[in-house]
């Protein structure tokens, strides 16, 4: 099964061969190699890696090489322990109850809100809303803005956005008659700032951006993009799902109205996410869900909603998952040092260079500042075939459209392979992956 990978005007597709000179091989990165092989870096990585029990397993006799962190990260022991401790000793619903278990549960739950305020550098703890993930966070905002959007209003969406940052806005447009306009990409698969400025002349009501592309790892200058949007009066939302585990965040510096992310991509559990919003922006949202927890008083004549953050957190929340998220934040605050961030950046450079040196590999996107992700195809072979053959050697990568079908269409692809790294990834992982891909190449080509 084969798949064409021909570029379009909005595509940067590099086919690496052993003789390509425009994109150097690993030998052209001596400093990066030295960093990756330094004793200090190896010891630091080994200490971090030892905290992830899932990495200590064999798949069909091969040690697991996990390169799918962009889809979901593995979990450190402290996250598993925090959730187990809650269920074993403190399991009770939060808020209102008079007994001690509920008091302990509530204290642990609300402590994480305080952690997130500091982690994001938010102004108020009430600006932190717990959700079930990035998707719910964006849906909450898109639904909550329904009364503020009118027929003909323009909604701008990053053309490289995840489906979760496209479909909720399309549904909002259906309800209100608003108009969706994608922000095009330039030749390097980056958001085209010139075209963006032209679109902003339409005075959009909403601008939805991604901080880091989940498919390509491309980093957007979100502070600049938000500033330009705000100058035109737009409401701004930034999808930070792929940024939160790699970057140090400051929502005050970004200055967006809303910033969203998921726990499971930042070494926390599934089923929990965060919606940060400026207090006045959150306070203008109509609740997506209504019922218990979010009310002030209820009668059969009328219901009065409570204040933030409860007003946007209807029902029993994912208590254990929030507590696990708190442990993940502690883990990141301890382990995601500037040295570790530099190591991650060197790993991505090394991964790209090794893929180029392998030959017959198409790389997609911009390459000088990718975070966490490298997208590729092997010659014209179908991405799923490549992924299955890698899996047979213990290598876990993601294959498909990566919930970014409009981006794949602009690349003239049905899909691609994606190798993504995490805080636990090391040089040996990359070397094992390249060796496995070389064997796949020998088999298929």
Brief synopsis:
This protein has 445 residues and is of the alpha/beta class. The protein contains 15 helices and 18 strands.
Instruction: Give me the number of helical elements.
Output: 15
Low-confidence stretches: 1-30
Mean pLDDT reading? 92
Largest sheet, spatial ordering of strands:
5-11-10-9-8-6-7
Number of beta strands = 18
Strand content: 15-25%
Helix content: 25-40%
What is the radius of gyration computed over CA atoms, rounded to a whole number of angstroms?
Answer: 23 Å
Q: Given the C-alpha coordinates, what overall shape results?
A: globular
Structural class: alpha/beta
**Biggest β-sheet strands, sense, barrel:** 7 strands, mixed
Mind explaining what this structure looks like?
The protein is of the alpha/beta class and 445 residues long. The protein is 39% helix and 16% strand. The chain contains 15 helices and 18 strands. The protein has helices at residues 30-37, 39-49, 77-90, 100-120, 134-144, 167-176, 193-200, 222-231, 251-254, 279-283, 319-335, 338-358, 383-391, 405-410, 427-444, and strands spanning 13-16, 58-59, 62-63, 65-66, 128-131, 154-158, 179-183, 206-210, 235-239, 258-262, 273-277, 295-298, 303-305, 361-364, 373-378, 395-396, 398-400, 416-420. The strands form 5 sheets. It has a 7-stranded mixed sheet, with helices on both faces. Helix 9 links the parallel strand 9 (235-239) and strand 10. The protein starts with 12 loop residues before the first strand and ends with a helix. The model is unreliable at 1-30 (pLDDT under 50).
